[in-house]
């Protein structure tokens, strides 16, 4: 039992050879230039946001119309 606990403790221990300050992510090899944004990505994200909001509002209006139709149908 003690051997298993020692093995688990050794496995969960942070290695002293690699520290977070000395390692660098492969996806952040260089810093992004905030003075020159990627306008294609900005345009795509904004247009997709607008498209999703338009679809949401149209679906909401459709649901309201269906609710009103069923309410009047049920009342008569």
Quick synopsis:
With 76 residues, the chain is mostly helical. It has 2 helices and no strands. The N and C termini lie far apart (76 Å).
Number of helices: 2
Largest sheet composition? none
Described by its quaternary structure, the protein is: single chain
State mean pLDDT (0 to 100 scale). 83
How many β-strands, per DSSP? 0
> Separation of termini?
76 Å
Q: Which regions are unreliable across 5 or more consecutive residues at pLDDT < 50?
A: none
Please bin the fraction of helical residues: 55-70%
Sequence of secondary-structure elements: HH
Strand content: under 5%
Judged by helices, strands and strand pairing, the structural class is mainly alpha
Report what the structure shows:
By secondary structure, the protein is mostly helical. The protein has helices spanning 2-12, 39-75. The protein is flat and about 80 Å long. The N and C termini lie far apart (76 Å).
SSE layout and pairings?
Blueprint: H1 2-12, H2 39-75
Protein name: NADH dehydrogenase [ubiquinone] 1 subunit C1, mitochondrial
Family: Belongs to the complex I NDUFC1 subunit family.
InterPro entries: NDUFC1
Which features does this protein show?
63% helix; membrane; 76 residues; respiratory chain; transport; NDUFC1; transmembrane
């Amino acid at each position: 039992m003690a051997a298993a606990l020692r093995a688990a403790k050794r496995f969960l221990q942070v290695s002293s050879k690699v520290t977070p300050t000395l390692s660098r992510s492969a996806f952040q090899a260089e810093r992004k230039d905030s003075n020159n944004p990627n306008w294609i990505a900005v345009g795509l994200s904004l247009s997709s946001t607008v498209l999703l909001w338009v679809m949401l509002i149209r679906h909401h209006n459709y649901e309201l119309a269906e609710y009103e139709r069923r309410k009047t149908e049920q009342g008569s």
